[in-house]
Write a structure and sequence with these properties.
By secondary structure, this protein is of the alpha/beta class. The chain folds into two domains: 44-256 and 399-500, SGNH hydrolase (Rossmann fold), CATH 3.40.50.1110; 263-394, no CATH class. Helices cover 36% and strands 11% of the residues. It is built from 17 helices and 19 strands. It has helices at residues 2-18, 50-53, 62-66, 69-77, 168-171, 181-186, 200-208, 220-234, 253-256, 267-290, 295-303, 345-349, 359-369, 376-384, 397-419, 429-438, 467-485; strands spanning 44-48, 98-99, 102-103, 111-113, 118-120, 139-141, 192-196, 240-244, 263-265, 312-314, 317-319, 330-332, 338-339, 354-355, 386-387, 394-395, 424-427, 441-443, 446-448. A five-stranded parallel β-sheet has the order 6-1-7-8-17, with helices on both faces. α8 (220-234) packs parallel to α15, α10 runs antiparallel to α11 and α13 (359-369) packs across α14 (376-384). The radius of gyration is 30 Å and the shape is elongated. It starts with a helix and ends in a 25-residue tail after the last helix.
């Protein structure tokens, strides 16, 4: 019986071996031929600020410029008649600038990741800002430019550098000391343009300085006038283009990396800090009553300073303006308030953001615990020991509201201009970066998030995109061009590929 089944099995194998078995071969997808639609890419000019220039890792350098989103776009435009795309390339991949042969702390070498965190490249910049480059440039991105700077006829004048009225990045590329960025762009007679992140720096400087007043937000009327003038001029010769709106800059890791509840305490330290603030509250109460403040009012004011701390994470103390309702000018941070990435974290570990407990302060606290009465000078020592985080290192609720209000006003103007002009496509950069910050976005199988170092979209400075982020941004421009001008970059497979663009540059890149 076993022999019978073995024979049948062998016969079956022999039969099958004589038959031709066809394996289905999937047909290759046939993509449509790339077309430009109604857009003319023969002379593409990019006008903008840091994102347009390719600014990455806290600096502008040759590799970052080569991976700027306008350069990525120009490579796709070249397939449908786009011309040469010139950029004011830096001398090296160090980044930073020399001004009159001298290094400037505002323009340092780029950041790289050393395994523990972002640090500056240990090298000296070689690009001299005062060495003006000859010729015209299709990439007119100038890091740090605000909306109205694009119209200022002294922005490229080297004699204005000492006055803070010129930008060294524009000084090295301006056609003349009196040329404006817009004039130099228009002198090239662009057939297509991008106008990106105009308005970003108008709020960013205020935000990165913690809203301390050193870099105020551009008022809406000034922004409106500048933006309308830019678009009106750029389209005056029939050119079409793409504009972006302004992201909520506070979504970026520069403002979200350092938690505002990173004051992690053990039980003993929490009890000690609670005791310090109870002492502050008591000292304030006694002083207010001595100054004639009604007891009930004095108690209500003093109660806000009796801050309690718990074992585990706690929120920091910040300085706020002195007011009648907050005479001492400090309070604990709320859940939504933010710390900047550049805050001195070593100082935080030594009492910055809580209390500077000197031996003299501890002596007064001991006196209070024993029921003693401190002298006015000793009482003042305890109050002065409260070491709240400075305005430059934090964004409080009022400052966050100012930033959002200005951004929303700018974006309303941008949306209105774009919707009323058939020659303009709009990229919603605000929504794109909000999605990156909240859930992340998919890019060729990579999930790009706003996490510093590991997120894949934002560079090491916590503000600007990295090369892969700029490639993703370029694709969003191409999709907007498809939708508005009838091209088919996406459908024809002519989008940037994630694997072609790095997330972090090597420290040895020269």
């Amino acid at each position: 019986m076993k022999f019978k089944y073995i024979s049948l099995f062998a016969l079956l194998i022999g039969f099958l071996s004589c038959e031709e078995v066809e394996s289905p071969i999937p047909e290759a997808e046939v993509l449509p031929e790339l077309t430009s639609g109604s857009a003319d890419f023969s002379n593409y000019v990019a006008l903008g600020a840091s994102f347009t220039s390719g600014f990455t890792d806290g600096a502008l350098f040759k590799a970052s410029q080569e991976n700027s989103f306008p350069n990525i776009l120009s490579q796709q435009f070249a397939k449908v008649g786009g011309g040469n795309f010139t950029q004011p390339l830096m001398n090296d991949n160090i980044g930073g600038l020399l001004i009159g042969g001298m290094a400037n702390p505002q323009f340092q070498p780029r950041l790289f990741f050393n395994g523990a965190g972002p640090v500056r490249l240990p090298a000296t910049p070689t690009t001299e800002a005062l060495n003006n480059l000859s010729g015209s440039f299709n990439n007119m991105g100038v890091p740090g430019a605000k909306s109205f700077n694009l119209l200022f006829d002294g922005y490229g004048n080297p004699t204005n550098l000492a006055l803070g009225l010129a930008n060294p990045y524009f000084v090295r590329m301006a056609s003349s000391p009196t040329a404006t960025m817009l004039e130099d762009a228009m002198a090239q007679n662009p057939t297509f343009f991008t106008l990106s992140e105009i308005g970003g720096n108008d709020v960013l400087g205020y935000a990165t300085s913690g809203g301390d007043g050193s870099n105020p937000i551009t008022d809406s009327a000034t922004f409106d006038g500048a933006f309308n003038a830019l678009v009106s001029t750029l389209t005056s010769n029939g050119a079409k283009g793409v504009v972006t709106n302004v992201p909520y800059v506070t979504d970026l890791p520069f403002f979200t990396t350092v938690p505002n509840n990173a004051l992690v305490l053990d039980a003993a330290t929490a009890a000690q800090l609670t005791g310090v603030f109870q002492a502050v509250s008591g000292i304030f109460l006694q002083g207010a009553i001595l100054q004639g403040v009604p007891p009930a009012q004095a108690q209500a004011l003093a109660a806000q300073y009796a801050i309690t701390f718990n074992e585990g994470p706690n929120r920091w103390i910040i300085d706020v303006p002195v007011t009648q309702t907050n005479p001492l000018g400090f309070r604990q941070m709320t859940e939504d308030e933010l710390l900047v990435l550049t805050i001195d974290q070593d100082a935080l570990a030594l009492g910055y953001g809580t209390v500077a407990l000197t031996p003299e302060v501890l002596q007064v606290l001991g006196l209070l615990q024993q029921g003693g009465t401190p002298t006015p000078e000793q009482a003042q020592l305890v109050i002065a020991a409260v070491n709240g985080i400075d305005d430059k290192d934090a964004l409080d609720a009022d400052e966050l509201t100012e930033i959002k209000t200005a951004t929303d006003a700018y974006n309303a103007t941008i949306a209105s201009v774009a919707s009323s002009n058939e020659s303009i496509a709009l990229v919603d950069l605000n929504a794109i970066l909000s999605e990156v910050a909240s859930t992340g976005v998919d890019f060729d199988g990579f999930n790009l998030t706003a996490n510093l170092v590991t997120g894949g979209a934002i560079s090491l400075d916590g503000i600007h995109l990295n090369a892969r982020g700029y490639a993703f941004m370029a694709n969003k421009f191409l999709e907007a061009i498809d939708e508005n001008f009838g091209s088919n970059f996406k459908a024809s497979g002519n989008l940037a590929k994630a694997n072609n663009y790095p997330t972090n540059y090597a420290p040895t890149l020269q």
